[in-house]
């Protein structure tokens, strides 16, 4: 089966159109993304007036594809594919690994590719009962197949030569940066970093600072990546991987809708050099946590440039045969036109009725058709413009990172250097990193506001308690009470001294039992006053303790 669909997209940007659109797109975004998009817009306007996508012809390759129904034969085999490990093939899908702990599975094409450029579209589901999944799914394009089923890299062997696109579900560093999609290119000599430590030294005025970074699951080796959630979605998740003229593009469909056109840009990386021929494969693995990794479709298309397609057509059809077919086509075409004219002459009424019914259109139908055509065109323009802007933002972020780091860096070990002496771009600040930083800043600002409100509330309550104590609290009551007691004691002493001076007669003998001395009376009054004084102190202490709860 051959599909010779061509793709050509041409966009023309102008200053008054691009800049407002960019501002609308980043109204709710971060400041860093705002600067990147505006810089990219100015860069595009100054350098070029149009961006034209590559033109290519694509052909469906059934020997490198599978889809349901009847995906597996009666004997359990999949045509042109071989699988093993924990993989289970059914009529509707291929379950690479079931939701069981410590399982590994794989699927590989039997035949090696015979084309240079390709597009892979595969549909899959990752479902599990837990909030966090493990370990993940992998797409491979390598020179050699890994068929042992004991690999440590998502169920496949390490030190591969080619491309590995990993869908990592497990959050190793507990930073909530998973599920994550990343691409890793290996030349066959590098071991995949499951966990690696990086040290960064900075020298200042009389001191040296050392920063320790821990990177897990190959983040330090990735070519590019994006943070996308693909677990437990209502519809199957779709991924499109395009490799054309050493440019790797990955588009992602999040599975929230059933629209086949809702793809968004995951990443685009240039100067990617893969093996010319290789095998396509899928693998998955589970650990302490387990998910079902189901692949429903895997469609492969070979890509050819217009020149290559024309050369292939010339090689397939000889000149003599092509002339013969062209002559036959012209004869059939002339006969068909002659028959149409004869029929119109023999049936003039039929011709008039057909022309009238075909040409007639009501005003309502015409308006609806025009509205639908306009809305469809606007939707296509916005979708393609969004995709182009994502590409521009990615390129501008890499450019800004390269300028900030002081120029190009050394290429990744094992990759062929790009032609023309173009510098490689190192690790860059990605959009998800900027969003994570801004989210942390917003969280810190919110926490600071809560702390400020809490301190203000405590200050208000403290002022209220102090004012209440100043008006009628414990300290004021005791001082007033002591002053009053001193005055009463002085008055009592004066009265007693006056009575003692005026009294000169001794007490009668018969009434001696009923008389008390002055000292006894004073002792009795003192004890009485001490009891009253203690009661007041006890009452004030209770009131002060009760005020502390408000």
TrEMBL record:
Protein name: L-type lectin-like domain-containing protein
Localization per Swiss-Prot or TrEMBL: Endoplasmic reticulum-Golgi intermediate compartment membrane
Main location (coarse class): endoplasmic reticulum
Gene Ontology cellular-component annotations: COPII-coated ER to Golgi transport vesicle; endoplasmic reticulum membrane; endoplasmic reticulum-Golgi intermediate compartment membrane; Golgi membrane
Membrane topology type: Single-pass type I membrane protein
Lineage of the species this protein comes from: Eukaryota, Metazoa, Ecdysozoa, Arthropoda, Myriapoda
Keyword terms: Disulfide bond, Lectin, Membrane, Signal, Transmembrane, Transmembrane helix
InterPro entries: ConA-like_dom_sf, Intracellular_Lectin-GPT, Lectin_leg
Biased composition (Basic and acidic residues): 336-354
GO biological process terms on file: endoplasmic reticulum to Golgi vesicle-mediated transport
Transmembrane segments: 516-538
Residue span of region Disordered: 336-364
GO MF assignments: D-mannose binding
SUPFAM superfamilies noted in UniProt: Concanavalin A-like lectins/glucanases
Domain L-type lectin-like: 58-303
